[in-house]
Amino acid sequence: MPRQLPIHERFHSFQGECCHAGRAAFFIRTYGCPVHCPWCDSAGTWHPDHKPQAINRIEALALAEEAAVARPAFVVITGGEPTIHDLTPLTEALHAIDLPVHLETSGAFPIRGQFDWITLSPKRWKLPLEQNLSRADEFKIIVDAPGAIDEYLAACPPPPGVPIWLHPEWNISTDPAILDAITARVKTSGDPFRAGWQLHKPYAADALDPRSVPEK
Fold first, then answer.
1. Taking 60 as the threshold, does the pLDDT of residue 7 lie above it?
2. I want to staple 102 with a disulfide (CB 3.0 to 4.6 A). Which of 18, 25, 117, 122 is the partner?
3. Which residues pair with 77 in a beta bridge?
4. What residue ranges do the domains of the chain occupy?
5. 108 in helix, strand or coil?
6. Does position 127 have pLDDT exceeding 70, yes or no?
7. Do the strands 164-168 and 193-195 form a parallel or antiparallel pair, or are they unpaired?
């Protein structure tokens, strides 16, 4: 029987974050996450307040065929926490039609599947596995307090040379203390630190695809 994945949403948009920001992308967002960040911007994938009446379970080949129609620069598998699932069949199906595959993960679980780019965004509620740190092509630290940058660097240091993106937690993205902490680190330390933003949000780019689930 073909392997199915629980899918929260899939949609055509552009990548709004980090090194590939602004490039056309097809997003596949899996259901489920044991990390449970209190400010999660995709809480519909796990939070009991957003429990769906039914969860779509879709075969890897069908997901790949849907992505191919969009003709994106690459496909992003995200969540929730996508690595709680075996993503091997999906990455194989996407690579079979010559679509690069990117992963967005907390790094807290074993990564199954072959990826062309891995964005690792550590979360203090369940820190990354050491084996995943060396696989990251970029780090994305969500700065939800001025001391968060040092906290994460101490708890899970990224490998040398990997870009370290500092993103303000979106609910407090206008907080001067948060923005000043990011600005100071970039100005003081330079590379590999970079100030980040979620460009897709002011564009409302994801919502233009009706397959995208509206935020609640």
1. yes
2. 117
3. 28, 103
4. 4-208
5. coil
6. yes
7. parallel
pLDDT confidence of residue 150: 98
CA distances, 146 to each of 52, 54, 123, 182, 210 (Å): 35, 39, 15, 8, 37
CB 86 within 8 A of CB 72: no
Q: Could you write out the three-class secondary structure of 128-181?
A: CCHHHHCCCCEEEEEECCCCHHHHHHHHCCCCCCCCEEEEECHHHCCCHHHHHH
pLDDT digits (tens, 9 = 90+) for 47-75: 888 878 788 999 999 999 999 999 999 99
pTM: predicted TM-score of the whole model, two decimal places: 0.96
Nearest partner of 168 among 134, 212, 201, 128, judged by Cα: 201
CATH H-level, domain 4-208: superfamily: Aldolase class I (3.20.20.70)
What's the chain's Rg over C-alpha atoms?
Answer: 17
Tell me if 22 sits within 8 A of 29, measured CB to CB: no
Structure confidence by residue, pLDDT tens digits, 22-55: 999 999 999 999 999 999 989 889 888 887 878 8
Cα–Cα distance measured from residue 78 to residue 98, given in angstroms and rounded to the nearest whole number: 19
DSSP conformation class of 199:
T
Residue 116 carries which DSSP code?
S
* Contact by Cβ (8 Å): 89, 112: no
C-alpha to C-alpha distance for 205 and 192, rounded to whole angstroms: 28
Sheet holding 56-59, edge to edge: 56-59, 4-14, 24-30, 74-78, 101-105, 117-120, 138-143, 164-168, 193-195
